[in-house]
Design a protein that fits this description.
With 142 residues, the protein is an all-beta fold. The chain has a single domain, classed as Lipocalin (Beta Barrel), CATH 2.40.128. The protein is built from no helices and eight strands. An eight-stranded antiparallel barrel has the order 1-2-3-4-5-6-7-8. The protein is elongated.
């Protein structure tokens, strides 16, 4: 784990995924045609990592469009972060492995996803990690 991080870390980032969508395109003379469009989509995520008194990291993420997930098998060393993400709603046994390396002040990496039906995708991801005090993840006391 990098020395500047304590026991609690805010995680913010994007993962990138190629997606196909079906659309309609105007075609001269013939009218309209159904087309398949491949596009690169960036999806934002945010969450946290917290190290327990036993030294084991736990984590969670929430991403736009997909919802909450839990992280396990977290390995956090000075220039690398690796974890396995599982959606809380267990969408067909999704298992998404992320691997990041510190580069130019932020974390650059890849993801690889599989579920009960097999491998379904790979892509790139970036994130920033911000050390926070433990109270950051608790409601404020007014």
């Amino acid at each position: 784990m990098p020395s500047e991080f304590g026991n609690d870390v805010l995680v913010q980032g994007y993962f990138f995924q190629h997606q196909n969508r079906i659309g309609v395109r105007a075609v001269p003379v013939h009218g309209n045609a159904v087309v398949v469009v491949n596009q690169l989509v960036g999806i934002m995520f945010a969450g946290g990592l917290s190290r327990g008194s036993d030294g084991v990291w736990i984590g969670w993420l929430n991403e736009l469009g997909e919802g909450p997930s839990m992280l396990d098998e977290i390995d956090f060393v000075p220039d690398a972060l690796r974890f396995l993400k599982h959606y809380e709603n267990d969408r067909d046994g999704d298992r998404i492995e992320y691997t990041f390396h510190l580069r130019n002040g932020f974390w650059v990496g890849t993801w690889s996803g599989s579920n009960d039906r097999g491998h379904y995708g790979d892509g790139h991801a970036v994130c920033v990690l911000t050390p926070v005090p433990p109270a950051f993840f608790e409601p404020p006391n007014d």
